[in-house]
Design a protein that fits this description.
By secondary structure, this protein is an alpha/beta fold. The protein is 54% helix and 7% strand. It contains 13 helices and 5 strands. Strand 2, helix 2 and strand 3 form a beta-alpha-beta unit.
């Protein structure tokens, strides 16, 4: 290693990191500045997606994987060396530099980590789509799944999400949200293969974006909303125009749990201003119907209320069994 006098400038090593989720060439202005001003620009990966764009911008990039000692030598005399990091980072190089610094025998250059591009919120969704693409092609189980075959998992994951919310477990909540998201991406990937009416996850996202914008004129338009009730009124009005339903019951899924179904029908009757008396009948079903309607009128979710009571009952049973 070349000796460096105490008076000599130590130089600088810049580790330039980029995100594969951002289009190559879209780098920050500080990154372009340091690249143009650097004495040497190095990259160990000859297939790095940034290299064609750097060279097109006039940056001379050397395809090499230098050792820590070679980097320190290259920085002697106050020179700046930029290392364009690979997707895995540069652990061997940074570990080597750390060892040299720890030895106390080498005057080290300044070390700077410069993120040249950043992930925007939601960027990891791109990774999920890519992983799902590969699984759909290469996994013997996933490649054979259909919308109908996956339907039961959608229901199960939704219930597990509700349970995580009710139990207040943040770790479980994050995991269950991921499982629900997987169902969306999985179904969208399957839908791409439909012969007559294919659609993709981008079509799904685009559709819900358009719906949210249209149903929030107080956010994206000229209307105003001062209270949650105002927002709900906007939502119901725009939804009614979109759906052009003949009955307030149109669109209510009859396959949902019975208490939720009863409460949803009661909600539609109330918000739609329909004068409809409860059916008269004997038996537990009609009693439960009346309780569900009463709960909805009082702003209580009957499904959640019954689940909470059932959990208390479960705890009572375990105590009676001596399980605590």
């Amino acid at each position: 290693m070349n000796a460096i006098s105490p008076e000599a400038a130590v130089g600088r090593v810049v580790l330039l990191t980029t995100s594969h989720r951002v289009a190559p060439g879209l780098l920050s202005w500080p990154a372009w500045q340091v690249l143009h001003e650097a004495d040497r620009v190095l990259c160990a990966d000859g297939a790095h997606p940034q290299l064609p764009y750097l060279r097109e911008a006039g940056i001379a990039v050397e395809e090499t994987a230098p050792t820590a000692e070679e980097i320190v030598d290259a920085c002697s005399g106050g020179r700046t060396v930029v290392v364009v990091a690979t997707g895995e980072g540069e652990p061997a190089l940074t570990d080597g530099l750390a060892r040299l610094a720890g030895s106390g025998r080498v005057r080290m250059p300044e070390l700077e980590l410069l993120p040249a591009s950043y992930d925007l919120p939601g960027a990891r969704l791109l990774d999920l789509v890519q992983v799902m693409d590969r699984i759909r092609v290469e996994c013997p189980w996933s490649s054979r799944q259909t919308h109908a075959g996956l339907a039961k998992y959608g229901i199960e994951e939704a219930y597990e999400l509700v349970e995580a919310i009710e139990e207040g477990d943040r770790g479980e909540l994050r995991e269950e949200l991921g499982d629900v998201l997987l169902q969306v991406v999985f179904h969208a990937r399957i839908a791409e293969e439909h012969a007559e009416e294919p659609f993709s996850v981008d079509d799904v996202a685009g559709g819900i974006v358009a719906k949210l914008i249209h149903r929030h004129p107080h956010v994206f338009g000229d209307e105003t909303a001062e209270t949650p009730e105002d927002v709900k009124e906007h939502w119901l009005r725009t939804k009614a125009v979109e759906k052009r339903r003949e009955s307030v019951t149109d669109g209510v899924p009859l396959g949902q749990p019975a208490l939720a179904l009863a409460a949803k029908l009661a909600s539609r009757v109330r918000t739609g201003g329909v004068s409809a008396a409860l059916p008269v009948g004997d038996g537990i079903g009609y009693e439960l119907l009346r309780l569900a309607v009463r709960a909805e009128e009082e702003g209580v979710d009957p499904e959640a209320a019954l689940r909470a009571a059932a959990r208390t009952y479960r705890d009572t049973i375990r105590s009676a069994e001596g399980l605590g």
